[in-house]
Amino acid sequence: MSSSSSTTATATATVTNNNSNNTSCCSSSSTVLSRKCFNSDCTDFKSRKGWRLRSGDFAELCDRCASAHEEGRFCETFHLNASGWRGCESCGKHESSQYNFPPQRIHCGCIVSLQAFTLLDAGGIACMACARNFFVMTSNPAWPPLFYHSPFPERLKDLSAKSWNQLAGSGPVPWRQAPSLFNSSATQSELQPRMPYEVDRLSAGERFSAPSLEKRNLEDFSERLINGSPRNHLWDIVENGNAGITGDEQPQLLSSLREDISAQQFGITIPYASPSESKGQIEGSVNPVQPAPLPLFAKRFHGTLHKGVDSSVDGQTRNGRPRIDARGKSQLLPRYWPRFTDEELQQISGNSNSVIKPLFEKMLSASDAGRIGRLVLPKKCAEAYFPPISQPEGLPLRVQDSKGKEWIFQFRFWPNNNSRMYVLEGVTPCIQNMQLQAGDTVTFSRLEPEGKLVMGFRKASLTSLSDQDNETSQTGDGVSANGDADLGPSPWSKVDKSGYIAKEVLEAKSSIKKRKSSTLGSKSKRLRIENEDMIELKLTWEEAQGLLRPAPDHVPSIVVIEGFEFEEYELVVPLDYSYSSLYGNLVDAPVLGKPTIFAMDDVGHKIQWVQCEDCLKWRKLPLNVLLPSKWTCSSNTWDSERSSCSVAQELTSEQLENLLPSCNLDSIYVYLNGISCSKCDDSQLFICTRCHVCESIVTSKRLKAAKKDIDNVEALGGLDTLANLAILGEDEALLASSQATTKHPRHRPGCSCIVCIQPPSGKGPKHKQTCTCNVCQTVKRRFKTLMMKREKKQSEKEAETTRKQQESSAEKLLDDDPSPSSNAGSASGSPNKKKAVSEGSDDDPNRMKSSASPFKGQIDLNIKPEREDELSPGSDSGGTKRMLQGASERYLRMQRFLSSDGDSIPASNHTVSRGGADEKVSSAVILGGSHQDAGENHPSAFSLIASASTPAT
DNA sequence: CGAGTGCATGGGG
DNA sequence: GCCCCATGCACTC
Question: Ranges of Polar residues compositional bias (predicted)?
């Protein structure tokens, strides 16, 4: 800072009151209106700038006062006897400290000395010199970030202590703010920040430098800084009211410490270490919304980081997310850690200059998003960030949404198992206003200094994406090695504007496995996908795609049409008509290759296990073997000793049991045909192996039926697999659309099912038309076949398609229930089925629309089903007719099929266990849902299936 | 009878 | 085994 030219004209007043007991070194008003020195104890005329005010302006001082300030003598000069003087915990903890004579004293109750010390996690303070030598420092948490705003809104200028108190406490969380931390006698005017350079001066001027300290003591000190030892941990301090800060300091301190100190102590920044330093590190990190350098946002790493601090700080640095209360966070489950994006923060803050403090977030459960209007709050979050309530009735809580609209919720609790269960009541309007549903995330943050609670939200579809992005950036080296804020283009490699740099990233990086297995909440698991998993899943999906092949015993014939070779599969009649809904055709379903289970052998090599079709024994195979869909022991060329069904299997039943139910596969291979689930103790199909839960897709009855016809079983296998995979999509879609239930746990981003493994269309990497990856090739091949089949069949059937039934049946299909089982009087008349199918009735129109998509005969590998019609606005022309035709066609096919095999009808229902109530959902429903709700997450392959399911023109 | 309310239950961490 | 919390459920309005 440059000082103005010295004024001498009237500088006659002397600086007095050296021993003044006046604690107010400044005028009570932070707005300097007169020409008098800002120092109320001085009568000189102002001529130079002093410390920085909360308004962003500078206290204008006379020459002498300014000099005193610059020399770090201001407090000593003007209010030496004021209360609030403290000794540095390190160099001046005790006046008789062996390290310090005389002890470093810091007038911590005065804003002038704000930058001269930092609050210690363990309680007490440390002078900047010590602090800077031992750890990366932050701004004093005791002071709200507003101190660093410049310019500060006019309305917040000229705050008296009272008004500040009111302001800080006027929000929904008045119990939190502690504007006057140190001394009740400290007036607001004392809480004026100094200019950054003054800090340095002060620090530099400190008489006792760290090197003078013995190493061991340095480490001890650092340890204390980090761990709060030997003093009470901060939370202990808060809880026990013993912070090493005595007397009247405690009451004020406690309320603030509870969150603020703990929150920021080690997100440490040296505020304005120097103008040059600050420039690069601070300004660069300032959010555009923030007009002025915000020290809070800056973080600075010293080469001499204590190892104890290292991880913490590094973690903060590496994190692409806002930092939250380090202590508070440690109290919270990771799933509640706020993961605000810059955009979200900006949205919340709007145009205000307020600083957003992310508090926590929560993914809405079905209950939360339901009509009950009760949002269950994580206990620790509620207790940490919401006002303490002693009565179950609680308190009304005013919450502002990101649009500035205010909502009032009842914050209350229920006694629950000697504990409490906190809820926000009356959230329905807000939830609805935000159009939130189960799986979406609500975020809670607080505007500083207003103290307003702000409720934001994040849609589930974005959550996973952003999470993935974050994970990517996190696991990447988003932060320079020296720990300085990465000022690169990635918003998340910067310090966010709130100044919080979540430190969990490092933790996340260093313990991904751990988090995945233990610390991650179930909810988080649902929506989070680790970067590693993405790669893994992609690979395995491609591998799985490579397994797609014609149904067994049906050699594809090659047809050349217009120069293109098409594989034409022989007819395979699936047991489940509903599969035809997926394919739009009954007959051309390829199947997956023989499902296998990957495991490790005794020596740690990856192997796979396959089950013989005939004897059901499990055989060990090399890792990279791909099997045809039908495989028996006789085909075991890798282990001649076990190439016969008569040979016992290697696995003991126990080993097998361990192998099967664990579902810990690294692929999406499916279990088929009668593997018993350890959880439901029923014959099930295991599908997505990351789901870790069996999917009750196929009942034992169905399996029996399937086994009746071994030819069909094989087809069923592949079809089931795809259908099951699709069902997952529908599962989610239904759930999402209903808003009554949460997303199915299996259908989370960590899931490797067909729905989950590919990025939402339009958001992930796209496959080019020329892409020759397994996925694309398979999809193309299948698409061609489907198109061929369709055209062929259409031409054949169009003539004979009964016009009689066309109108009635088509209408019936469209309006109500395309279920042939009910129409055919089949035995499958599950009451749920009607419901399911009626829910799925929406599907057909969409599917039909998609059939009119522009890519006639050409596959869009990245097509997004729900957008197909968007892409082809004119696609509706003739669409209705085709829709009717297609519907009637399918209807007739189904009828024909059902009349020939009534037993298969039960198989047409997929029993999806959900919340204890089984719900039978036909694949047709699934498809519909995929178009509507889950479409965003749908993979190209599935899109293809959908789009190819209807006649193309 | 449906919506709202308060508590209980049980799965999962 | 404890705690959290999603959800069930009985009860009331």
Answer: 464-477
A209 and A343 share a domain?
no
What counts of helices (H) and strands (E) characterise chain A? 34, 22
Pair (A563, A522) in one structural domain: no
Enclosing domain of residue A216: 83-170+178-273
Judge whether A663 and A652 are in contact, CB under 8 Å.
no
pLDDT digits (tens, 9 = 90+) for A148-181: 333 333 322 322 222 222 222 223 332 333 222 2
CA A885 to C1' C1, in angstroms, rounded, equals: 63
Predicted confidence (pLDDT) at residue A590 exceeds the cutoff of 80: no
| CA trace torsion A311, A317, A322, A325 (10° rounding) | 30
pLDDT tens-digit readout, A855-879:
333 444 343 333 333 333 333 334 4
| H helical segments located in A528-573 | 531-546
Q: What pLDDT score does A782 carry?
A: 64
Say if residue A443 is in the same domain as residue A327.
Answer: yes
Task: Assess whether A267 and A338 both reside in one domain.
Answer: no
Tokens at A58, concatenated: 């500078």
Q: Is the CB of A418 under 7 A from strand B?
A: no
Q: What is the DSSP letter of A54?
A: T
What is the average pLDDT score of chain A?
49
Res. A332 pLDDT band, cuts 50 70 90:
low
Q: How many whole angstroms separate alpha carbon A485 and alpha carbon A503? A: 13
Distance A391 CA to B11 C1' (A): 28
Give yes or no: residues A862 and A935 share one domain: yes
Residue A240 lies in a domain: yes
Please check whether strand C approaches the CB of A368 to within 7 Å: yes
* Cβ(A717)–Cβ(A630) below 8 Å: no
A521 touches strand B (CB under 7 A): yes
| A 350-379 residues, CB < 7 A, strand B | 371-373
Strand B–CB A740 distance below 7 A: no
Rounded Cα–Cα distance for residues A754 and A688 (Å)? 8
- The average pLDDT across A188-198 equals 30
Residue length of chain A: 953
Distance CA A179, CA A163 (A): 10
Spatial distance from the CA of A525 to the C1' of B13 (Å): 12
> Are A355 and A484 part of one and the same domain?
yes
Lowest mean pLDDT of A288-302, A396-410, A757-771, A892-906, name the range. Answer: A288-302
Does A452 map to a domain? Answer: yes
**Is residue A284, in this structure, part of any structural domain at all?**
no
Instruction: Indicate whether A343 and A445 sit together in one domain.
Output: yes
Distance A380 CA to B4 C1' (A): 26
- CATH number of domain containing A319: 2.40.330.10
Q: Is residue A214 part of a domain?
A: yes
Distance, in Å, from the CA atom of A430 to the CA atom of A350, rounded to the nearest integer, reads 19
Distance A328 CA to B5 C1' (A): 32
Looking at residue A878, what DSSP letter applies?
T
